[in-house]
What we know:
By secondary structure, the chain is α+β, with helices and mostly antiparallel strands. 20% of the residues lie in helices and 42% in strands.
Amino acid sequence: xxxxxxxxxxxxxFSVRNEGHEIYAENVSKTLNKNIxxxxxxxxxxxxxxxxxxxNWTIVIEQEVRDGEFKNRASxxxxxxxxxxxxxxx
Length: 90
């Protein structure tokens, strides 16, 4: 996640997935830094895997970022996989 400015971030959330399908999403604070989010996401993933070990569970931190200076500005999405360190934009 390249953007850390809370003024540009419209929404940030954890996306829990099983076999690639989103099962659960939870809003998280826009002001937390990446390291705290990563630790929290990995902790939640460990708990999910302990409770439901037969699934192929992953967790991704996603955020919607506003681009530009005006109220009707466009947005795009950034995602970060805390297990692999992989980042992507869409």
